[in-house]
């Protein structure tokens, strides 16, 4: 029974990594909508695994290291691949090298965070977390065709620099709801917009996984918060 309890948070982390890998595959065939949705699902899972581990009291160094490995794929490699195929591929080998900077800076950010985790504050992060950076890059790539093309490369380099910077970023660790609710809501809203425009053939069908998962997790957090505030 103890082994099963220890494995539950790790399963969420592994699914996070798996969805990141699938996102890379969808980017490679030009399906950026499903690629973006898969990264969003990874965000949800990333916000769940740590909370579940704390709830079950099974936090471990193994889980933390596994989480970092998953993050570098889902929020480092996957968004960089989206950006490459959507924009940087036009520059050939140079575009490959530029896109590769994002997971490199992200890996450095994760390594620095891991060795300073004990000293880190719940109130702020030092530098932009790779999860937030990857989410922003995904968002900008998703809407790349609807904004000036110069925005994506400028934002790309700014996010890379901010990830390894010492800028203090407010933390939302103590917020009871998912940290990425606003960003996820925007994507879901855009998916609904596609439906209303009757572009069903372009509908990102992985949204059918994201919506129930997101609603279930919000419900879980609300119930848990209510029980915490009103103990019997």
From TrEMBL:
<keyword id="KW-0472">Membrane</keyword>
<dbReference type="GO" id="GO:0012505">
    <property type="term" value="C:endomembrane system"/>
</dbReference>
<keyword id="KW-0594">Phospholipid biosynthesis</keyword>
<dbReference type="InterPro" id="IPR004533">
    <property type="entry name" value="CDP-diaglyc--ser_O-PTrfase"/>
</dbReference>
<dbReference type="GO" id="GO:0003882">
    <property type="term" value="F:CDP-diacylglycerol-serine O-phosphatidyltransferase activity"/>
</dbReference>
<feature type="transmembrane region" description="Helical">
    <location>
        <begin position="179"/>
        <end position="196"/>
    </location>
</feature>
<feature type="transmembrane region" description="Helical">
    <location>
        <begin position="150"/>
        <end position="167"/>
    </location>
</feature>
<keyword id="KW-0444">Lipid biosynthesis</keyword>
<keyword id="KW-0812">Transmembrane</keyword>
<dbReference type="GO" id="GO:0016020">
    <property type="term" value="C:membrane"/>
</dbReference>
<dbReference type="GO" id="GO:0008654">
    <property type="term" value="P:phospholipid biosynthetic process"/>
</dbReference>
<keyword id="KW-0443">Lipid metabolism</keyword>
<dbReference type="InterPro" id="IPR043130">
    <property type="entry name" value="CDP-OH_PTrfase_TM_dom"/>
</dbReference>
<keyword id="KW-1208">Phospholipid metabolism</keyword>
<feature type="transmembrane region" description="Helical">
    <location>
        <begin position="122"/>
        <end position="144"/>
    </location>
</feature>
<dbReference type="InterPro" id="IPR000462">
    <property type="entry name" value="CDP-OH_P_trans"/>
</dbReference>
<keyword id="KW-0808">Transferase</keyword>
<dbReference type="InterPro" id="IPR050324">
    <property type="entry name" value="CDP-alcohol_PTase-I"/>
</dbReference>
<dbReference type="Pfam" id="PF01066">
    <property type="entry name" value="CDP-OH_P_transf"/>
</dbReference>
<keyword id="KW-1133">Transmembrane helix</keyword>
<feature type="transmembrane region" description="Helical">
    <location>
        <begin position="12"/>
        <end position="29"/>
    </location>
</feature>
<protein>
    <recommendedName>
        <fullName>CDP-diacylglycerol--serine O-phosphatidyltransferase</fullName>
        <ecNumber>2.7.8.8</ecNumber>
    </recommendedName>
</protein>
<feature type="transmembrane region" description="Helical">
    <location>
        <begin position="93"/>
        <end position="110"/>
    </location>
</feature>
<feature type="transmembrane region" description="Helical">
    <location>
        <begin position="202"/>
        <end position="223"/>
    </location>
</feature>
<comment type="similarity">
    <text>Belongs to the CDP-alcohol phosphatidyltransferase class-I family.</text>
</comment>
<dbReference type="InterPro" id="IPR048254">
    <property type="entry name" value="CDP_ALCOHOL_P_TRANSF_CS"/>
</dbReference>
